[in-house]
Automatic annotation (TrEMBL):
<dbReference type="InterPro" id="IPR016161">
    <property type="entry name" value="Ald_DH/histidinol_DH"/>
</dbReference>
<dbReference type="Pfam" id="PF00171">
    <property type="entry name" value="Aldedh"/>
</dbReference>
<keyword id="KW-0472">Membrane</keyword>
<dbReference type="InterPro" id="IPR016162">
    <property type="entry name" value="Ald_DH_N"/>
</dbReference>
<dbReference type="GO" id="GO:0004029">
    <property type="term" value="F:aldehyde dehydrogenase (NAD+) activity"/>
</dbReference>
<keyword id="KW-0520">NAD</keyword>
<feature type="domain" description="Aldehyde dehydrogenase">
    <location>
        <begin position="32"/>
        <end position="109"/>
    </location>
</feature>
<dbReference type="InterPro" id="IPR044638">
    <property type="entry name" value="ALDH7A1-like"/>
</dbReference>
<protein>
    <submittedName>
        <fullName>Putative aldehyde dehydrogenase transmembrane protein</fullName>
    </submittedName>
</protein>
<dbReference type="InterPro" id="IPR015590">
    <property type="entry name" value="Aldehyde_DH_dom"/>
</dbReference>
<keyword id="KW-0560">Oxidoreductase</keyword>
<keyword id="KW-0812">Transmembrane</keyword>
Length: 117
């Protein structure tokens, strides 16, 4: 069921979608950088800033992950990428709606050019 049809706020709808997608609520609430809907102007979330040291640690973690990933045999990487694509396709409707909310796009534009009908 489309949450928007229930006349929920954009922020409530976005939070419900993120919850369905398994995103931890702490990742988009309570931060010091506020996000707003370009359509309604209402606050949709809050992102946390990090210190230079925290950013450097995250960059180091990403570098470590890359170095580990490149050691995975190509067929296994390909299979993992294929499975990731399946997960994205399964969540296409929710992800498209999030794009619509974030960017102020109409729903068909949020889904992307190949998904419009």
């Amino acid at each position: 069921m489309n949450i928007a049809a229930k006349n929920l706020s954009i922020a409530t709808e976005a939070a419900a979608i993120l919850e369905r997608l398994g995103v931890d609520k702490g990742a988009y609430t309570g931060g010091d950088i506020r996000t707003f809907s370009p359509v309604t102007g209402e606050q949709t979330g809050g992102l946390k800033t990090v210190t230079s040291a925290e950013a450097a640690a995250k960059i180091d973690q990403a570098d470590d992950a890359f170095r580990a990933w490149r050691l995975v045999p190509a067929p296994k990487r390909g299979e993992l990428v294929r499975l990731f694509g399946e997960e994205l396709r399964a969540a296409k409707s929710d992800l498209g709606r999030l794009v619509s909310i974030e960017a102020g796009k109409i729903p068909s534009e949020g889904l992307g050019p190949k998904c419009r009908k």
